Structures
1.
Amino acid sequence: MPPRKKRRPSAGDDMSAKKSRQDRYNIVKYIGCDDVVGPEGMEKFCEDIGVEPENVVMLVLAWKLDAQSMGYFTLQEWLRGMGSLQCDSTERLRNSLDYLRSVLNDTTSFKLIYRYAFDFAREKDQRSLDLNTAKCMLGLLLGKTWPLFPVFNQFLEQSKYKVINKDQWCNVLEFSRTINLDLSNYDEDGAWPVLLDEFVEWYKEREMS
Amino acid sequence: HQFREYPFLCETIMIRSIFLFLDRTYVLQNSLLPSIWDTGLELFRTHIVNDSGVQKRTVDGILEQIELERNGETVDRSLLRSLLGMLSDLQVYKDSFEERFLVETNRLYAAEGQRLMQERDVPEYLHHVAHRLEEENDRVMSYLDQSTQKPLINCVEKQLLGEHMTAILQKGLSTLLDENRVTELALLYQLFSKVKGGLPTLLQFWRDYIKTFGGEIVGTPEKDKDMVQDLLDFKDKMDNVAQGCFARNESFINAMKEAFETFINKRPNKPAELIAKYVDSKLRAGNKEATEEELERILDKIMIIFRFIHGKDVFEAFYKKDLAKRLLVGKSASVDAEKSMLSKLKHECGAAFTSKLEGMFKDMELSKDIMIQFKQYTQNQSEPSNIELTVNILTMGYWPSYTPMEVHLPAEMVKLQEVFKLFYLGKHSGRKLQWQPTLGHAVLKTEFKEGKKELQVSLFQTLVLLMFNEGEEFSVEEIRTATGIEEGELRRTLQSLACGKARVLNKNPRGKDVEDGDRFNFNNDFKHKLFRIKINQIQMKETVEEQVSTTERVFQDRQYQIDAAVVRIMKMRKTLSHNLLVSELYNQLKFPVKPGDLKKRIESLIDRDYMERDKETPNQYHYVA
């Protein structure tokens, strides 16, 4: 694990410093127009550090960089984020991947990442996440850890929902953490969003037949 | 003295008489010696009555006689009275007779209860029980000792009623109530009130009966037409039973109210809607079946049913819509009845509930004044119009919302509208007038071959008919272009003029429905016995639509009310757990609502950033300022 101590960037947005750092982080290779790492750059970047773009670790990285939207890193996000990770080259970043993965095991950080993922994946002109994206993101985040995920996914597929709002999104995590796999401790009169009430009802009906 | 009735006592009296002197002088002096009389009795008790053989035969005989009498035969009652009196006097009544008598009675009635419950129907059985009780009471009066009454009657009541309470009610109560058998119901109540636990059991069955029966009235959509009348009749009947048969027992009356409230709300919204429509049918003109007093009584009864309804807003919406129709078309039967109903509603639900309805009445009155002023105003105008115009000014918000519809009015009408607008806005500047052609109606003077007639028609019908001043024959399309009436509405209008009861237009080709290619011409041969003819708009389809949209509007309104209540509560409390919020909401909301619906509104408010969920404790909400 790299040392957590932050190294202060030598000078804010001084052009020469920026230039040299760009070199050090090899970002020039990836950067497209408007000082943004776009889809193509991202693909190349992923290749260089040896992970697939849809790997969950990329989400952790994006969270560390505080990236605003999926598929893009702005120059500023990149510089600030890599600074805090103390990485100045693809090699060093590759070595930090294990650390990034381990962040997922910390429940508090995971919750932050989970919540962050909603805004990250959302179309910026929409308040809610469209259902397909939501399903992919849920799969990425909970697919391996929540045994009920496949059933929940099935439920979403047959449901009338077109989008998932933030409240529903956040409650799915709570649900996956606190509710038993047989749903025995689910309280319909609790504060759960109706989406989850419906899931539980659907699931129980399915179990009956 | 009853002793004289037993032969043995006569003998004893004689012996005492013979030895009177001995008795008075010697025995009386000596306190240790019993009197001759007592000695006689004592000897008789010891040697005769307490002789087991004699006693057994005596008591057997008595019991046999009683059983015979119970089976309907005539027995020597004075003999029984003498014998039992003797046993009492000798103080052996309780031990030698009563005990066995009660055991026998118990056995007899246990068997009889079992048998007759099978054989007889409930009314017959009840009468039988009453009869038996009477007989046994009579027996006590005639020859049993008074002290036997209580255990004897208890025993009969227990064996004939107490043991069979549930069976009697299960088997008979609903039939008795269905058939309204007042006598038997009163008897039932009277009998059950004597048995331990009788009335609570009866109460339970009575409540269940009302719930089941009422549930059927309310829960059968095919019978919706008669629902309200059925409910009123049912309530009347049950009231009668409670008053007449159940001795106005408070708990029975309360149970009835509770049962009504339960079953009426089992089906949401529909009863409220139908009650509103029922009131409309009673308040509408042409309802000649009731005098003012009867009408008043009906309205009072309606209010009782109305009181049970949870979703009163549905009632209000439908009532308002119908009231608007009555007021605007001038179809209200009586202003007094309308006012009386309004005051009843106000009394029941408060001023907020009726403020809009009152506003509607106020509008109508104001409109009358305005029209008087308008008449004066037009008389002073340079070019008086030959059309009479009446305008009702409706305040938006008081009245149901009507979808505005643009139609092409004839130039004269448009001009008149302008005149009125000028007049009205001159008096009340800053107001906005919007004409509602859907609500307009007119009287047209027409000349047929048969003679002059007046047609009372809607504005749409007017527009169509006026076209025939200008030409002979028009197609549907031509009429549509000229009048600008919306397609469906136009078809219904044409149908009412050419296919209804009063056919002032001819349709070519003939037929019941209006098709695209149809052409219409004026029916000069039209005949009718009346001078003024009202041609009804065809409304069938519209009422269904109206009904749906009214209900929807109520639901929409309820959502706003839930939202408002949530925000109000959260604004005051800032942070609140889900359960507390929900219970607070149930306190505040005056209509029935499911917890799931509340949650949907809460989620929607979260989504719209009026509030947020606590990040750590998901069942806690925070108000977002």
2.
Amino acid sequence: MKNKYSIFSLFKNAFSHHENWEKAWKDPEPKKEYEAIIIGGGGHGLATAYYLAKKHNMKNIAVVEKGWIGGGNTGRNTTIIRSNYLWDASAGLYDHALKIWEGLSQELNYNIMFSQRGVMNLAHNLQDVRDLKRRTHANRLNGIDAVYLSTEEVKKFCPIINTSQDIRYPVLGGTLQRRAGTARHDAVAWGYARGADKMGVDIIQNCEVKGIKRNGDSVEGLETTKGFIKTKKIGVVAAGHSSVIANMAGLKLPLESKPLQALVSEPVKPIIDTVVMSNAVHAYVSQSDKGELVIGAGTDDYISYTQKGSHEIVEGTLKAILELYPIFSRMRMLRQWGGIVDICPDASPIISKTSIRGLYFNCGWGTGGFKATPGSGDLFAHTIANDEPHKLNASFNLNRFVSGDLVDEHGAAAVAH
Amino acid sequence: MSKNLRINSSKFIDQTNRISFIFNDKKYYGYKGDTLASALLANNIHLIGRSFKYHRPRGIMTAGSEEPNAIVQLHKNTSRTEPNVRATEIEIYEGLEASSQNCWPSVNFDIGGINNFFSPILPAGFYYKTFMWPANFWEKYEYFIRKSAGLGKSPTEPDPDIYEHRYIHCDVLIIGSGISGIMAAKTSAKNGLKTLLVEEKPYLGGTTIYQNSEYFKINNQTSGSWLEKEINEIKKLKNLEIKTRTSVAAYHGYNFLLAKENLTDHLPIEIREKKIRHRLLKIRAKKVVNATGSIERPLIFDNNDRPGIFISSAIKRYADLYGVACGEKNILFTNNDSAYETAISLIQKGINVKAIIDNRENVDSKLIYEAEKNNIKIFKGFTVVDTSGYKRIKKISIMQLSKDGQKVVGSKKNLHCDCLGVSGGWTPVVHLFTQSGGKLKFREEDSVFIPNEFPSNQISVGACNGDFFLDEILINVPKSLQKFLKIKNSEYDNIEVSSFINKSNRNIWLLPSDKTFGKTKPFVDYQNDATAKDIKLALREGFRSIEHVKRYTTTGMGTDQGKLGNMHALGIISETAGTKMGELGTTTFRPPYTPLTFGTIVGRNVGEYFDIFRKTPIHNWHVKHKAEFENVGQWKRAWYYPKENESMHEAVQRESKAARESAGILDASTLGKIDIQGTDASEFLNRVYTNAWSKLAVGKCRYGLMLNEDGMVYDDGVTTRLGENHYIMTTTTGGAANVMSKLEDYLQTEWPELDVYLTSVTDHFATVSVCGPNSKKIVSEVIPDLDLSDESFPHMSFKNAKIGKINCRVMRISFTGEHSYEINIQANFGKSVWEKCMDAGKEFNITPYGTETMHLLRAEKGFIIVGQDTDATMTPIDLQMDWIVSKKKYDFIGKRSLYRSDTIKEDRKQLVGLLTENPNEVLEEGSQIVSDINKSPIEMLGHVTSSYYSPNLNKSIALGVIRGGKKMMGQRLIIPMEKKNINVTVADPVFLDKENKRLNA
Amino acid sequence: MFLINCPYCGERDQSEFKAGGEAHIIRPKQPTELSDDEWAEYLFMRKNIKGIQFERWNHAHGCRKWFNIIRDTSNDEIKTVYKMGESPPKL
């Protein structure tokens, strides 16, 4: 039995100088065969394994990770969580996730610091106003808490925004989802890993997939840097590297992998108490518990797997930040980094079976996957276990690119693709 | 406390120029040349701030940008306030005001210090394990956590300073002006290469420039005076640009680097007005020489964080460069010879050095001998096991190390001191090198990571390449440069070097203690209060990757990004986990090297320069006539023209009525215009629009709809055939640039065989649109020679004309449904034509109208606006515009997509008109449409895309898209608003003049 | 930030260019004869290669010409450039 985390266990362990804490997860060598293997030890992959074990009673499963768990986009994103999406399918998906977020710390017995400090989306032109109102009405009818705010209400909710009507693109209004907010990204990966490990899932790090073995139309196993592992079900949750894995199985996906950058400032005392996003002026910002301003930049337009983007993207983002928050001009950028995001043509994800039996993909989250982590894991687990999608992810199939039934969420994506 | 520790004069400090400054509300004095740190030390101030987590008192540790502890808030409560400024970097100026951070009520008495007592229950990651009960209480805990976190305070007023960017292209960029950098600069510039030398400090010469020791000589001079001559020589070189106070922040691919040149931070505030504060240099260098030097390592032992504990080389720098003694009873603690250099420097200046604790057992060198000669007690094979002194170090405890260095043996000795200098060897500064994509290798002998493979045209020389010692530098640097710069003769042949240093070191990442490990606090990351204990806890809990440990313990995540302690963190992980350092690797060095001000990154692109304003040639007229403007893309478009106290609604109603009853005038200059010429121009249009173009007669206009390849409506506009092989296409205002790019893309890459030339002429023409029943009379007065009869100039046709001597193009096209003319004229005559029309229209009450009225008028006619009535999910069929989709044409962009299984569905969302039950109720654009509000979940059929009160129909009208709307004509639906439901009826989207009689009225 | 050697203008900063995705995807000459699957393949499916990729770039703030680049997407190293219509040079 694992240590249960609580203030009492902290006190208890203080007496032994914290030398008796157990491993949060083991570090096993792969077994010869698993019932299912998840490729990718990010939040989505670990959550998938967790729910496969918890809800579908699949215990003999493994997560294989090329590097270290949570080291990809999970550990690189700006941790915004919200569900105010336009289309019914998206709203269903993201709000399913949000509902899980609301009890996740307790469920995992791991404080993932889910903080419902609200997310505001700003409107800067008349079409923005129309679009945001449309989205707010749709959200309301879908049971998602969202309100439209006037410029004055925006200012009241976040006083440091420059709402002067004399700026280049004045704030004309905005939307607010109060249940939205942020969580601690690393903790999400670690919490799911600990939870999955507890139920017997093997989390295998430093294990890179080199090939997918097929027998006709079915999968047979994985070639990895730690040898061949047999399995009949493979769930791929490899984000920016999804196409690389797909190519191993002889598939092409409707994805492009592009650099997405983010940055933090030096830590300061609390100055912004919510998350503010602006599509038109192209900046979003929140403040971490540590005090750093967390700022998301945009994607570059070229394909790259380097986890580096171009400087002009960062410059453009900070330019927008200073337009909306002139008081931050003397703040300093402490760290900037990049991730590789896999982008679908309709800015919606794929949680789907493929033409190969036993091979499933969960990808295409673009710039906004973190917020869906628990829901994505839950629904992907359902899809793998039942070989059928759940009704909440039925729309996010691969066939939509053939039929034309796309779920175009460009308007809701944080960053214009 | 008011002791003066300025013990000797220094040529780097101007003692004739006394400067006053304020620290924690008290006035002190320093001299020009001082940093805040050196000036505080001269005043015997050691307690600077409190640490992040435990609020432990902290002082100054270093003399440079690696400083983790001595960070202050400048000019609190003013518009120039700045948090987290390193006291070791900021140069003092008259009026400098600084205060301690992260403490309350004061740095001397800080309530938060209680955290230190709670530290046993605050190990690494404690917050992941608690604050979960009761559920939903996290945000209440979080409130207090956030309040106690953070360091300084954000400014709360806009920045009064200005910033700028400068592009620099050079043959060779040299980063760092230590001895290696100076040699590189001379070699490069003397050989005809355009060279830029940048140095983060205000002076050149690095640590060598103040090296005044007999033990380090070049050509029989002290290395300091030799280097001074070299510097004087290079200052005269024409090819060389030297920038001090300039730090390289980022080294991107393709030798693109960013550097911050600091221009005013060292000047008194009152003379900074209107001066540029920082300049961001965007450097593209053909070759880069990294001469970034090295940082001295601390040592990791219990309570190694107290004020008064310094890096040994910092003590030397304070003494040699600033003439300041860091303490009166100094002890040094080292594992190599560097601390002896410090000791000898101090002794030369008459500063007491009591003892040197040396990890090494059997070691000897001239420096050690010299130290012993000066009555410094040397404890070989010893280690410090503890320190005491709350706000300043008072005492250290030392013990002998076991042979293997894993334990301490024998009895404990206590030594009193007021300053402890530590030296754990040197770490090459490889941050920029790795940012550029360079890979490191681990050198076992002295446990350092040094540059190995790298992608771009660069080289690392001197200490940053692992050559720490003077003799190595003078031999290796010139050789490497010669090869790298492809130069025949070295500038540094036949140089004599004498160096008496012993190069051995005894590296122990975590020094042993006599205490239970769990009871010690050996700090690895000083700012974030991460200890060796935290690192071991992380490993115990299964965090094995260096990145995991970093994130779990926050090691290396402070404002110093772990410049001091990261190597020890790696070392401790390596030892504990039994992994080799070389295999473990390092964490990623992310830009910037030192934190970079947002304002600096943004430069001039703030405020009015945030984004360009595109204005039409008639813009000033609109301003003069009190128009309100709307942003459309980068354009400023006149939105409406309120008269006196008119509301927007009133103005729009008036404008709309006037346009239909008599005459209206619109500035349509922002519409995109693309000139299309070539023998295949008609074929080209056939391929890009959904309808057919070949048969359009010269002089005629046609409306076109453009799709994306996925079949969704992309843009629309009227295109006119000016000649057999000549068209002018108009696009939407917002879509102009994208349409142009898309057309060029197809032309160049898919259809290079077509003889077609595209030119964007949007800005070349002004477009004045006159509409309404009296438009003909007005235009005939403005252009009297033009035959405006319906026979000669029917709707959807075009004529060349002249207004005076000026050519113009007149199109008879209409977006309002009224009889109307668009006069296109060379942009600089736009305003005068507009005014002519206004004059001519006076008698008809010609009324200027803006975009809002334009939208209303076209909605009365059911004309769509791409982007408002469409999103990226509407096909022409969905818009009930089947008539514009040619069935005969073999292909056009997007055609195939219209026949996919989903796009051919009959119940897609389709454009319809909507009428409210109450004709005075105007729907909200964006509101959703349902048929049954009792259904759960409620099913949304579509939404309202456009909605207005029509003064011409005296009722509310709206356009919307509804699933299966085509077949719902006359059906009643509901708009569920927050507080009420509105009943609507599905109607024909053409509300007015369905027969188009008004076009010829 | 790359330095891109436009075949028409010479070396210029990346900020002058726009990327246009995978190269040598030829628009079908007879789209109406394709199945929905085949059309989707052209429209949406991409190799998205990690490694040597042939791609399209446009000198958007320069000569506005489209051309091809061969670039290693795993380290962003540009191997060579060539004009539209030319067959890719051997590396």
